[in-house]
Automatic annotation (TrEMBL):
It comes from the Bacteria. Keywords: DNA-binding. CDD domains: SPO0J_N. One of its GO terms (molecular function) is DNA binding. Belongs to the ParB family. This is ParB/RepB/Spo0J family partition protein. GO terms for cellular component: chromosome. The lineage of its organism: Bacteria, Thermotogati, Deinococcota, Deinococci, Thermales. Residues 32-119 form the ParB-like N-terminal domain. GO terms for biological process: chromosome segregation. SUPFAM superfamilies: KorB DNA-binding domain-like, ParB/Sulfiredoxin. It comes from Thermus thermamylovorans.
Length: 300
């Protein structure tokens, strides 16, 4: 993963540099520590805290190896900017205090820093990354996520040459480009094409993706299947190891079947189900019974 920040983006550059500096850096002897009771978890972009038991076990044996990043709140308490997973595991391990690194950040800078730190996680899955990037852009631009998504889509349409989308020269669009350059993960064009569709996934696919049970490419393929039962069956096969190539073949076959015109005899079957043959006029009833007898013989 590239972490070279863009020189056009001072805060993101500082945040990424600070994270790079902290990464793997051991706790220094005599460094600052704070009691757990003085630490306040902040609103957290991260929703999953996996492996806490294992981390707590490691902390019991070796202690907290990397300091938490905190900012002073001015009342003897400190807000956690980065390291809430370590904080939770330290509580589980029965520690009373943890090593910290104190930084002076505004509330907005702290939120941005937490969002950037969340995006550097090794266990980040594509759906979490998508939501994280949008949250970062939302915070940075001061716009709701829905407006950020709309901006990105208008930018793409203008790039494609569609008329009526003069947005690329705007400060917001330029800022979007700077943020993606600073993160160094992908271009904004690739993000719009490959990641925004993940926002509209059915709940079962979204859950599988959040759990890391399937790759996002498989989720996008499965999204095309409208038959819920079939999609669920294919989802289980993907979890069991069905390759993307085989999945695409299955999805193509399903879509072809969905688009196939209804067989003409379906109307005849429906009409028979609704008709009481005994009430038909004698000649008509005899003719229908004869045809049904012939059909029965042919199928038998």
């Amino acid at each position: 993963m590239s972490r070279k920040p863009s020189p056009m983006d001072p805060f993101l550059a500082r945040a990424l540099s600070a994270l790079e500096e902290m990464e793997g850096k051991p706790v220094q002897a005599g460094g600052k520590t704070l009691p757990l009771e003085a630490l306040v978890p902040s609103p957290q972009p991260r929703k999953r805290f996996e492996g806490l038991e294992a981390l707590a076990h490691s902390i019991r044996e070796k202690g907290v190896l990397q300091p938490l990043l905190v900012r002073p709140l001015g009342d003897g308490r400190y807000a956690i900017v980065a390291g809430e997973r370590r904080y939770r595991a330290a509580r589980m391990a029965g520690l009373s205090e943890v090593p910290v690194r104190v930084v002076e950040l505004s509330e907005k800078e702290a939120r941005l820093f937490a969002l950037v730190e969340n995006l550097q996680r090794e266990d980040l899955n594509p759906y979490e990354e998508t939501v994280g990037v949008l949250a970062l852009l939302s915070e940075d631009l001061g716009k709701p996520v829905e407006e950020v998504v709309g901006l990105l889509r208008r930018m793409r349409k203008e790039k494609r040459g569609e008329a009526g989308h003069n947005v690329m020269a705007s400060p917001e669009a330029q800022r979007v480009e700077e943020v993606f350059q600073a993160l160094g993960r992908m271009t904004w064009e690739s993000f719009v094409q490959n990641r925004l569709p993940l926002l509209n996934l059915p709940e079962d696919l979204k859950a599988a993706l959040e759990e890391g049970a399937i790759p996002y490419t498989a989720a996008l393929e499965l999204k095309k299947v409208k038959d819920e039962a079939l999609r669920k069956a294919l989802l289980e096969e993907v979890k069991a190891g069905l390759s993307l190539r085989d999945l695409k073949a299955r999805v193509r076959a399903a879509l072809k079947k969905e688009k196939a015109p209804a067989a003409w005899y379906g109307d005849v079957i429906d009409a028979l189900k609704k008709t009481d043959i005994s009430t038909l006029p004698t000649e008509k009833r005899a003719r229908v019974e004869a045809l049904l007898a012939e059909l029965k013989e042919l199928l038998g």
